[in-house]
Design goal:
Layout: H1 14-27, H2 36-51, E1 58-62, H3 68-75, E2 79-84, E3 92-93, E4 105-111, H4 120-130, E5 131-142, H5 148-158, H6 172-181, E6 185-198, H7 201-210, H8 226-237, E7 246-258
Parallel strand pairs: 1-2, 1-4, 2-3, 4-5
Antiparallel strand pairs: 5-7, 6-7
Helix pairs in contact: 5-8
Length: 266
């Protein structure tokens, strides 16, 4: 008889994750705060729903702190429940690694969250279980192709003693394996890249903080001292084009699929 499944490795610190998300919400109160990653995800979800002519009656939207997706779905006549792991960010505070507070929803959307959960397979199973049979789930988050310029700069800063400063991320192939393992039917995994031009490393880091994309790893790397940060700035600037700007990439991975239809006994 098989024993209990081993606990998932603890890569991300939930306390740090909430602190980063809280800082993001404070930053968003400032004029000009970056929000292009979430705006892109919301637009992409709406385009997908329009393409398949989906008209959900009841939807659970997780992680959209802008409220834009919920508003668009409500205009279409859907009843919306908004949820978020951070208190105060939505109607309901949730833990993605526990059963979700909804059942038999026609649509479940998770945005910019699943890249920092420790038990991603478990979270995907909870998403499937919250759906009605045949209902659709869409989950988008930053993928493994993200931030190559920043990664290169950080490696240069640490020289011969690299520290864990950026998250391990899921790629398209791993995403496909995960949703199949979680029992989603009609699974689809794809990605697209947002390319953003930066004149400085400081501006890139500011945009990451604005959007809650800071480091939430359990293992805390030591802070870069002034000399190390200067090396990072130099390495980042060395990647610039002729106009003096660096193109950074944000890869957005999207998982979509359905809860299998209930089998009818014959």
């Amino acid at each position: 008889m098989a024993g209990p499944s081993p606990a998932p490795p603890r890569i991300f610190d939930p306390t740090r994750r909430m602190a980063v998300r809280g800082r993001m919400m404070r930053q968003q109160q400032r004029p000009g705060a970056a929000r292009f990653v979430m705006d892109d995800m919301v637009e992409d979800v709406l385009e997908r729903l329009a393409f398949i002519r989906a008209e959900p009656r009841r939807a659970l939207v997780i992680g959209d702190w802008t409220g834009a997706l919920a508003k668009a779905l409500e205009i279409g006549g859907a009843e919306i429940v908004r949820a978020d792991p951070a208190p105060g960010c939505a109607q309901i505070c949730i833990d993605e690694e526990a059963p979700l507070p909804a059942e038999n929803v026609d649509l479940l959307v998770s945005l910019a969250l699943l890249d920092t959960v420790n038990d991603l397979p478990g979270a995907l199973i909870h998403i499937r279980r919250a759906l009605a049979p045949g209902a659709l789930a869409i989950a988008s988050f930053a993928g493994a192709g993200s931030l190559p310029s920043l990664r290169s700069a950080v490696l240069a800063a640490d020289a011969d003693r690299p520290a864990a400063r950026l998250h391990p991320m899921v790629d398209v192939r791993a995403g496909a394996q995960l949703i199949q393992r979680a029992g989603w039917s009609d699974p689809v995994v794809d990605s697209h890249a947002l390319r953003v031009r930066y004149g400085s490393l400081d501006r890139l880091i500011g945009d990451l903080r604005d959007q809650g994309m800071g480091n939430v790893l359990v293992s805390r790397a030591p802070r870069l001292d002034p000399a190390a940060y200067a090396r990072a700035q130099e390495a980042f600037a060395a990647q610039a084009d002729e106009d003096g700007r660096v193109t950074e990439i944000f890869e957005i991975i999207t998982l979509s699929g359905r809860r299998p239809q209930d089998r009818i006994a014959v």
